[in-house]
Amino acid sequence: MTSPVIGTPWKKLDAPISEETLEAVDKYWRVANYLSIGQIYLRSNPLMKAPFTRDDVKHRLVGHWGTTPGLNFLIGHINRLIADHQQNTVIIMGPGHGGPAGTSQSYIDGTYTEYFPQITKDEAGLQKFFRQFSYPGGIPSHFAPETPGSIHEGGELGYALSHAYGAVMNNPSLFVPAIVGDGEAETGPLATGWQSNKLVNPRTDGIVLPILHLNGYKIANPTILARISDEELHEFFHGMGYEPYEFVAGFDDEDHLSIHSRFAELLETVFDEICDIKAAAQTNDVDRPFYPMIIFRTPKGWTCPKFIDGKKTEGSWRAHQVPLASARDTEEHFNVLKGWLESYKPEELFDETGAIKPEVTSFMPTGELRIGQNPNANGGRIREDLKLPNLEDYEVKEVAQYGHGWGQLEATRRLGVYTRDIIKRNPDSFRIFGPDETASNRLQAAYEVTNKQWDAGYLSKTLTDEHMEVTGQVTEQLSEHQMEGFLEGYLLTGRHGIWSSYESFVHVIDSMLNQHAKWLEATVREIPWRKPIASMNLLVSSHVWRQDHNGFSHQDPGVTSLLLNKTFNNDHVVNIYFPVDSNMLLAVAEKAYKSTNQINAIVAGKQPAATWLTLDEAREELEKGAAEWKWASNAKSNDEVQVVLAGVGDVPTQEIMAAADKLNELGIKFKVVNVVDLLKLQSAKENDEALSDEEFEDLFTADKPVLFAYHSYAHDVRGLIFDRPNHDNFNVHGYKEQGSTTTPFDMVRVNDIDRYELVAEALRMVDAEKFADKINELEAFRQEAFQFAVDNGYDHPDYTDWVWPGVKTDLPGAVSATAATAGDNE
Questions:
Q1: Averaged pLDDT score across all residues of the chain
Q2: What whole-number distance in Å separates Cα of residue 103 and Cα of residue 112?
Q3: How many CB atoms sit inside 10 A of residue 591's CB?
Q4: Is residue 707 within 8 Å of 765, Cβ to Cβ?
Q5: Residue-wise DSSP of 38-72
Q6: What are the DSSP calls for 402-454, one per residue?
Q7: How far is CA 74 from CA 230, 292, 318, 534, 658, in A?
Q8: 647: number of CA atoms within 13 Å, CB side?
Q9: CB within 8 A of 642, min separation 6: which ones?
Q10: The CATH number, out of the four listed (3.90.550.10, 3.90.640.20, 3.40.50.920, 3.30.420.40), of the domain defined by the range 625-795
Q11: Count of C-beta atoms within a 10 Å radius of residue 366
Q12: Does domain 19-378 fall into CATH 3.40.50.970?
């Protein structure tokens, strides 16, 4: 499935742009500027028809003007291009505080009123439109999900190009002008984003037109790119693979019609070049072109008063936020505001009812070509369910024959095979993204049906550049920012995918996950017209417990703590899964690939590990989120239980199971509980999809000690169960910020989650005095096993050779379950 082809894309103009059209574009610019100022300042009397007084000004002036007039200018011209070329177009508005421009655009093209009927196209509607902006009970100040046409909020700087390029992948008819703020251009993610042009193909993908909005200042300082020489600036972008075209306006008294004429001509030149690139790409895979980009240099706060209180305003950092902060409080500032508003001649732009005059919008696109109505900007409208293969075809079936705990398989490799066949069935609507780690995280089966998309030159496709082609459904760049941003843009425009990263480096994009969750939260709560998009699926692998090669720097499971902050209010936009083996990972993946409007964090190791469950058992446990493993428990009822043994995650569960084996030999009665869906533990008062208190008590008992081995930081669990039955009896062991480049046993040992410590802890919880000698023996053996590793460089056989006693190793065809002692983490 590709996004729908709207209009007649990539068509050059046959005739010059008329003066009448340019006059209409200028009126658009003026009305958009007026609407933007009105949103920041006015609470009433929106067209100043009644006597205009300070009472018409908002009490709190919130918003940003500096970047807005330049955005209004650009969006006006983009609207003209869309209409004249009938070009399928989505805009990305990168400058963080250009919200008034985005909402003004949607109001002008009519989509705002269509989605919010109370915002009528008259004076009363205009007053509501102004008052709601950055106002109690109103809308935020950014190009937020509440604004039709937005797929990039812009409040978090750095991701405009990542989202833009993600949107055009497998979307060959889509044109995305991506407006990049010059403050945003100083961020690391944006600097990385310029490289995206090496990861798309103009034949199978759309085109991104970066527009650097160079207005010279951030909040209080000049911007770097505005102060370097033109030669250096152009060389920089040419080195990034672009052909830069510079446009300068607003620094002299040039009349507006001349400015519009010059920019329209430049935009046509650039678009003609894009059309040529698209046409050449249809015949064969040509060498990567230098894609055009525009450097748009204008004053900050363009068209606002040049000086306020004797201080330079237009063209300075003072225009960034609210240039007239005292417009309600002082008559002097109020009169400046009045003159500023009148400078746009609103009487020429609005009719007697307060509606925008038809001649203002005569040049604009209609129907789904409107920026606010393009279905690519409301991707749920065009999203189709994935064609998923039969999950049973990928099941590890040997566990049913040889017993729970059979074998040593890499769970994520099995996921890779399943995902390979999803790509095969959905060849242009599903992608894998990864920062150079697709194969490292065992998803390389995808290369049997697709390639890594790469257009940055080749040496030898047989010797070094394996699985690399100009077209492919796997995208790799060594940047977590890019991977999340690409996938986010891909999802928001109606497609599906997964990205993977080493667990410790998911933290690099904590804020991106946070912002995407907020987008989804706003959508789920308040924006029913935004149709559900496919979920963001994140495979968190190479995790804390098996960093054999990388050590302490690569040991950080804390992404769970971040995501738990998004789990209130019953929005259900975050899931945190800990599949314990290959079959559970398959079940989780199937559920994740079917889901919408969620972030699915799937924490799964890639090292050889036992398979504990059949696929049916995995699905049943996943349905509830947690389950007793009756086949592993030796207590027949909760009354008989002396201690509950609970595991969350593959390695913690491995250690819990080994501890259970040893406790069974000591005659301790226990039940084993496994948790796959972490949020099912959350208080039922905070999460209406969590286990009920009755179900929780049935699993963990009403009053028996619970030894809980958890993959991440223990405070995650403590926070989730704070008011659950029996919570005071939970003893949670998790990662304790201890580790190094060491053996698998030593890694769990230093964090007190190894099987020997868990047995000792369980005995302390049951009867410390009675089992004192055994506890001492276990503690001594822990040190002995550590010294063994120090002396030999590998772990003690008591650790490595353990197999769950239920595994049948003597049947024909049985495979040894001996644990591996090392793995590939690079």
A1: 93
A2: 8
A3: 18
A4: yes
A5: HHHHBSS-TT--SPP-GGGB-SS-----TTHHHHH
A6: H-TTEEEEEHHHHHHHHHHHHHHHSTTTEEEEESS-TTTTT-GGGGGT--EE-
A7: 21, 16, 22, 31, 64
A8: 26
A9: 635, 668, 669, 670, 704, 705, 766
A10: 3.40.50.920
A11: 12
A12: yes
Tokens, residue 149: 């046409």
**Percent of the chain's residues with pLDDT above 90:** 84
- pTM for the complete prediction? 0.95
Question: In terms of Cα–Cα distance, which of 268, 179, 197 is closest to 238?
Answer: 197
CB 804 within 8 A of CB 657: yes
Per-residue pLDDT tens digits for 543-597: 888 876 677 778 888 899 999 998 888 889 999 999 999 999 999 999 999 999 9
Query: Do 175 and 89 meet the contact criterion of CB atoms below 8 Å apart?
Result: yes
**What span, in angstroms and rounded, lies between the C-alpha atoms of 187 and 228?**
17
CATH architecture under which domain 391-608 falls: 3-Layer(aba) Sandwich (3.40)
Number of residues assigned to the chain: 826
3-class SS of residue 142: coil
The beta-strand segments (E) located in 236-371 are 242-248, 291-297, 307-308, 311-312
pLDDT in tens, 217-258: 998 999 999 999 999 999 999 999 999 999 999 999 999 999
Q: For the segment 51-60, what is each residue's pLDDT rounded down to a tens digit? A: 999 999 999 9
Q: What is the torsional sign of CA 411, 412, 416, 422?
A: positive
User: Tens digits of per-residue pLDDT, 671-701?
Assistant: 999 999 999 999 999 999 999 999 999 999 9
Confidence of residue 811 (pLDDT cuts 50, 70, 90): low
> Does the pLDDT of residue 826 top 60, yes or no?
no
Which residue type sits at 320?
H
Could you tell me how far CA 97 lies from the centroid of its own chain? 20
Report the C-alpha gap between 10 and 279 in whole angstroms.
8
Nearest to 304 by CA among 250, 254, 262, 369: 250
User: In Å, how far are 167, 482, 602, 717, 822 from 506, measured between CA atoms?
Assistant: 22, 12, 12, 20, 23
| CA separation for the pair 413, 422 (Å, rounded) | 14
* Pairing relationship of beta strands 670-675 and 643-648 according to DSSP bridges: parallel
Q: Cα–Cα distance between 257 and 51 in angstroms, integer?
A: 32
Parallel/antiparallel/unpaired status of strands 496-502 and 536-541: parallel
Shared fold status for 19-378 and 391-608: yes
Question: Under a CB-based contact definition with an 8 Å cutoff, are residues 472 and 452 in contact?
Answer: yes
User: What are the pLDDT digits (tens) for 467-491?
Assistant: 989 999 999 999 999 999 999 999 9
User: Could you read off the pLDDT of 322-364 as tens digits, one per residue?
Assistant: 999 899 999 999 999 999 999 999 999 999 999 999 999 999 9
Tokens standing for residue 432:
């894998």
Amino acid letter for position 493: T
> Would you list the domain boundaries of the chain?
19-378, 391-608, 625-795
Q: Which spans in 133-248 are helix H?
A: 160-168, 188-193, 224-227, 230-239
